[in-house]
From TrEMBL:
Protein name: DNA polymerase III subunit alpha
Family, as annotated: Belongs to the DNA polymerase type-C family. DnaE subfamily.
Keyword Lipid metabolism listed: no
GO terms under biological process: DNA replication
Localization of this protein: Cytoplasm
Any Pfam family matching the protein: PHP
Organism: Flavimobilis soli
Swiss-Prot/TrEMBL catalytic activity: DNA(n) + a 2'-deoxyribonucleoside 5'-triphosphate = DNA(n+1) + diphosphate
EC number: 2.7.7.7
Domain Polymerase/histidinol phosphatase N-terminal stretches: 9-76
Alphabetic keyword roster: DNA replication, DNA-directed DNA polymerase, Nucleotidyltransferase, Transferase
SMART domains: POLIIIAc
Length: 1179
């Protein structure tokens, strides 16, 4: 290190890991430290150590010495278990007193060595585990003293206890506290910290701090409260503070920093500031020399499996595999299975992973044995025979042509990674099991960090600058669409070298034309990519052989007490920790509910694992595209592909899951597969020389490469690679590193040419394999998920009522999905009955050939209310009247809003009164009964005691006189029903007008919102009913409207702005049937429309007019005619179809045979337009 007289080390730095406060990006930070010639820097983020390892790793790589510290939150003299707020001062001194109204003080700490580093981890961890108060993890004196070894500390910033007491005039207390801390850390390792940002709170106590240091003999330490890298970054930091506080930049009195001096100052600047106290700067270099920490990246903390006495993990693993093989193959283990199992056991043992397999098998088998549904497999692990034997997976890898080396490669040592799907309702039980079995101190969920993405940065910046909402919308809409969920960066938009630069021309034009937009973009650039908040990994759980607190810092989530790592998974993995993925899959919950429904509906139980994969009704359903609600296969585009493909075996289900993704679709592989399968496209070899050689590999996929495993098999068969080498080739192709690719091509071409193939064949094959690797899919995953797809399709085809009831239950909180599946029930001929207090359970249930609405789906009716209603019904019998209902249920049910919701939702219809009649008396009824109920609950008397009363009502003590009123009209009934249930159940205002919607719209709303391929900004026409209308005014005084349009299948929000609003505002009204042309707006996972045109469709034409399809004679090839016939068959109904055959100068009209009559629907029209073009339905 340079001499102390010229250098300086920043020891108080808040990086991007001090979320919504620190704006110092690590890469920029170390670059600036290097530019300034400084050799070390510390991180002291607030309370947590989120960035400690990342900081250490990046600093080391940049040649900067990393010092790991924390600006700790410390209790104000109380125990960390005590949540009492404490004031040190008197009334009137609040501005100078303990931070956050008495919640905490600050203290700066640094790790001097590795013992200190791990003590820092422990103190930070327990501060959260035991001392959390709101958002602050708080240490107390006990933790500070217990974990002081190997540490250095200071008096801290102005929020520290010592400076706080000095401001309050409590000199003796300040000396006492400083002396106690000096005794804890040692005289050499406790500093008096000095700051000077030119603000009053610092200058007021400077003399007292110097006097204190002299009094106790403590060295001085000069720091800058660093929150960003360069002075000009202060605007970005100020924006973060506004986001954190919900303020705008111009808000008076908001929290902000005084000045712009919180950056990485040069040594000269710092020494100039402290020219009279040079030792305070010298000591920063001394402290840096005192610190030397490192992280162990060679450790392995694989969780230990508790083996039976006399066994170790290897011996027990081999025995478990053998037991499993005998169970899987009761008729005998074939030589192929035996060979594969022995090979895998050898590889797994040599790589040291028997314990991993045992642990995974343990919690999966515990789940299965305890009735928790587990998915048949996920990811490449389904390719392992050992996993299949141990019941980790439920897919025979040899039967499905799966490759073990894709999961675990003996030629490339890396951790195996089983991702496991569970019934989403019971995932927590599995985590609880592993926590209890393997140790609460060794299991934790994993933190994630949410960053500010480009679009969010634009919206935030627009709001902070107080521009109208439309400004953020205009800019985000002008951005190119995300690719694979990833947006172009704001810097990339203006960088000609960015690969997506050309796509951002519209954004640059908007930016250039609007000075206000330029201000927004400039501010957004500064905050884009910074960390906004932490969250919890959706699936990941760390399991360790050692207590986690001895390896990494951990914390407790305040909401539920869950223990979570402070490092995210990539950092945990580098430090030797093992992640298990416990995923909750809604479709497994649906399967379990459907199986329960089958039994409850009086049918024989179904065991999914015993089903063969060749059920004709299932494949007929798939070929018709009737897959709404079927796992992976329910999107509009997917359903169209299934109709074209007409799957008839499991290989097709596996393939369609791999093909219906952006990469293969971009290459048209999905359509080519479907056409080739049905003889509508010739199967052409990749190269004439390769036709025979690749038949075994590509025959099942009609000459197309669909899976990663096929790439590996090609390399093995044609170039002589081992499967381990082939997996390395596959990975190299995906990474696209030229040097590695050149090396791989040399070996690949040599291997092929040794086997007699020409360089032309080699090069042709290589040129196909290389781009394919960008989107190649894992067959093990596709096949395993294909099984779940098959199971859901099987149940829909064979047990439609029970399956659809389970499906509706799964989406009961999503009104759009509920409406979609309710309409599907109508198409399937299934009646969905309204809720009923005598018949409904909590969820949707199958009742014979019908489905009964669940009570928990009614608005304002909570789970506890439903449990009470069902319990009262089961204990005391069906409710015979409204009075009887109020008598039998407990007080928790007797709430006016709850009863009104039940009435309007139709739940009392079976008791013989109109809904209108019951609404008229329900408040009086509740008032009459609630006092009696409360006394009964308090045990004051028995509500059911019969004191000689002559009838039931007299025995009860009250009677409800329900008037005999006619019910509301249909419109009002349905309005209330929709209000309470979120959708129309008993009827729909658009019933009977299906033909109007079909003619007016190019797609149904449900098809639109489930169409993954529908691009942001694309134009679409829909038709439906306006169910909600909100007229609003922007801050600039411009009127606009938010409208909800609903058809028979779904609903969507539509925005009317500017001239469009003014043009159509007079016809915007609730209950109006409209046709709307709009532009798609995708925001995160939500779709809405921006209105372009609005009209009123003609509702006078009857539904029986024929469907007229225009077809050019030149298009009437056999494949097109066959496909047209299939489309008409798929939409059977009562409406005639007429064909208009056109050729130059002539048109011929002909009627299609009656057996091909259809039902008008957007789905029919969409299929026709996809085949024959968008003008085929024009008259």
């Amino acid at each position: 290190m340079p001499s102390a007289g010229s250098d300086f080390v920043h020891l108080h730095a808040h990086t991007e890991y001090s979320m919504l406060d620190g704006a110092a990006r690590l890469g920029d930070l170390f670059a600036e430290v290097n530019r300034l010639g400084q050799t070390a820097i510390a991180t002291t983020d607030h309370g947590y150590l989120f960035g400690a390892y990342d900081f250490w790793k990046q600093a080391t790589a940049a040649g900067v010495k990393p010092i790991i510290g924390v600006e700790a939150y410390v209790t104000p003299g109380t125990s960390r278990f005590d949540q009492t707020r404490v004031r040190f001062g008197e009334a009137g001194q609040e501005a100078d007193d303990v931070s956050a109204r008495g919640a905490y003080t600050h203290m700066t700490m640094w790790a001097r060595n590795n013992e200190g580093l791990h003590n820092l981890f422990r103190a930070s961890s327990y501060a959260s585990l035991e001392g959390q108060m709101g958002k602050w993890p708080r240490m107390d004196r006990d933790l500070i003293e217990r974990y002081s070894a190997g540490m250095i500390a200071s008096t801290g910033c102005p929020s520290g206890e010592i400076q706080t007491r000095l401001r309050l005039g409590q000199w003796d207390e300040a000396v006492r506290v400083a002396g106690e801390l000096q005794d804890i850390y040692g005289k050499e390792f406790f500093y008096v910290e000095l700051m000077d940002h030119g603000i009053d709170i610092e200058t007021r106590v400077l003399k007292d701090l110097l006097r204190l240091a002299k009094t106790i003999g403590a060295p001085l330490l000069a720091t800058n409260d660093l929150h960003y890298v360069k002075r000009e970054d202060s605007a970005s930091h100020d924006a973060l503070l506004c986001i954190n506080s919900g303020s705008k930049l111009a808000d008076p009195g908001r929290f902000k920093f005084d000045g712009d001096g919180y950056y990485v100052k040069s040594a000269e600047e710092m020494r100039r500031t402290w020219a009279e106290l040079p030792e305070a700067c010298d000591n920063t270099v001394l402290l840096a020399e005192q610190c030397e920490v490192s992280f162990d990246t060679s450790a392995n903390y694989m969780p230990n499996y508790p083996c039976p006495p006399g066994e170790d993990e290897t011996s027990w693993f081999i025995k478990e595999v053998e037991r499993g093989l005998n169970a899987r193959y009761p008729d005998g283990i074939s030589p192929e299975v035996r060979k594969q199992a022995d090979y895998e056991c050898q590889v797994i043992t040599q790589m040291g992973f028997p314990g991993y397999f045992l642990v995974v098998a343990d919690f999966i088998n515990w789940s299965k044995d305890n009735g928790i549904r587990v998915g048949p497999g996920r990811g490449s692990g389904a390719g392992s025979m050992a996993a299949y034997a141990m019941r980790i997976t439920d897919l025979d890898p040899l039967q499905h042509g799966l490759i073990f080396e894709r999961f675990l490669n003996p030629d490339r040592v890396s951790m195996p990674d089983f991702d496991v799907d569970f019934d989403e309702r019971r995932r927590g039980e599995v985590i609880k099991y592993v926590t209890e079995k393997y140790g609460e101190d060794r299991v934790a969920q994993i933190v994630t960090y949410g960053t500010i993405k480009a679009k969010q940065a634009l919206k935030d910046s627009s709001r902070l600058l107080d521009f109208p909402f439309a400004m953020g919308e205009k800019l985000t809409k002008a951005m190119p669409p995300a690719i694979m969920g990833k947006d172009i960066t704001l810097s990339g938009i203006f960088d000609p070298n960015d690969k997506r630069y050309a796509e951002a021309e519209e954004f640059r034009q908007v930016h250039a034309a609007d000075p206000d937009a330029q201000k927004v973009v400039e501010l957004a650039k500064g905050i884009e990519g910074l960390k906004r908040q932490w969250g919890v990994h959706a699936a990941g759980v760390i399991m360790s052989s050692h207590p986690l607190i001895d390896i990494i810092p951990i914390m407790r989530r305040p909401q539920d007490g869950a223990v979570i790592t402070q490092f995210d998974y990539p950092k945990c993995e580098e430090l030797g920790l093992i992640k298990m993925d416990f995923l909750g899959l809604r479709n497994l919950t649906i399967l379990d509910d459907a199986l329960d429904n089958i039994v409850a509906n009086g049918k024989d139980p179904v065991v999914l694992e015993e089903l063969t994969l060749d059920d004709k009704k299932t494949y007929d359903l798939l070929a018709r595209g009737d897959t709404l609600g079927v796992f992976q296969l329910d999107g509009g585009g997917m359903r169209s592909l299934l109709k074209l493909m007409r799957p008839d075996n499991f290989e097709d289900i596996s393939a369609v899951g791999a093909l219906y993704r952006p990469g293969p679709m971009g290459a048209n592989s999905h359509t080519n597969y479907a056409l080739r399968k049905n003889g509508l496209q010739e199967v052409t070899p990749i190269h004439p020389e390769l036709a025979e050689a690749l038949e075994d590999v590509l025959g099942n996929t009609y000459g197309l490469i669909v899976y990663q495993e096929q790439v590996m098999a090609i390399a093995q068969k044609l170039a002589g690679y081992s499967l381990g080498q082939a997996d390395i080739l596959r990975r190299a192709m995906g990474k696209k590193k030229k040097a590695e690719l050149d090396k791989q091509f040399e070996g690949f071409s040599a291997g092929m040419m040794e086997r007699g193939f020409s360089m032309d064949a080699v090069q042709t094959l290589w040129n196909i394999l290389l781009p394919f690797s960008d989107y190649a899919f894992n067959k093990a995953h596709s096949a395993a998920y294909g099984v779940v797809s098959y199971w859901t399709a099987y149940l829909k085809a064979n047990y439609p009522v029970e399956y659809m009831a389970a499906l509706l239950t799964s989406v009961k909180d999503d009104k759009d999905k509920s409406a979609l599946y309710l309409n599907e029930c109508r198409h399937m001929g299934i009646t969905v009955l309204p809720p009923d207090v005598n018949s409904s359970s909590a969820n949707f249930t199958a009742v014979g050939a019908d489905i009964r609405f669940g009570l928990t789906a009614i608005r304002n009716v909570g789970a506890n209310v439903v449990e009470s209603i069902v319990a009262a019904r089961e204990e005391k019998g069906d409710f015979t009247s409204f009075t009887d209902f109020l008598d039998k249920v407990p007080a928790v049910v007797c709430n006016k809003r709850t009863i009104e919701s039940l009435i309007k939702g139709g739940a009392f219809d079976s008791l013989g009164h109109t809904r209108r009649s019951l609404v008229m008396v329900h408040e009086q009824a509740v008032d009459s009964v609630i006092g009696v109920k409360r006394k009964e609950a308090e045990g004051q008397f028995d509500l059911f005691a019969d004191f000689g009363a002559s009838d039931a009502d007299e025995a009860i003590g009250f009677s409800i006189d329900v008037p005999d009123l006619p019910d509301w009209d249909k419109k009002q009934l349905l309005t209330f029903e929709r209000e309470m249930l979120g959708l129309y159940v008993s009827d729909h205002p658009l019933s009977g007008l299906e033909h109007v919607l079909s003619r007016a719209a190019e797609t149904s709303i449900a098809q639109l919102i489930t169409d993954e391929g529908r691009a942001d900004g694309s134009v679409v026409t829909i038709a439906g009913l306006i169910t909600s209308l909100q007229r609003k005014m922007s801050k600039n005084g411009n009127p606009w409207a938010a409208v909800t349009i609903e058809d028979l299948e779904g609903s969507i929000e539509v925005m009317f702005f500017g001239e469009t609003y003014l043009a159509y505002s007079t016809i915007l009204a609730e209950d109006q049937i409209v046709t709307l042309k709009g532009r798609v707006r995708r925001r995160d996972e939500t779709m809405s429309l921006q209105a372009m045109e609005l009209s009123l469709p003609d509702t006078s034409a009857g539904p029986d007019s024929p469907v007229l399809v225009t077809v050019p004679v030149s298009r009437c090839t056999q494949p097109v005619v066959e496909r047209l016939r299939d489309i008409l068959r798929t939409h059977p109904g009562a409406t005639e179809v007429h064909l208009k055959l056109t050729e130059p100068g002539r048109a011929t009209l002909m009627k299609v045979e009656d057996k091909l009559r259809v039902e008008r629907s957007p789905a029919l029209f969409g299929d026709l337009k996809a085949l024959l073009g968008p003008t085929c339905l024009a008259s």
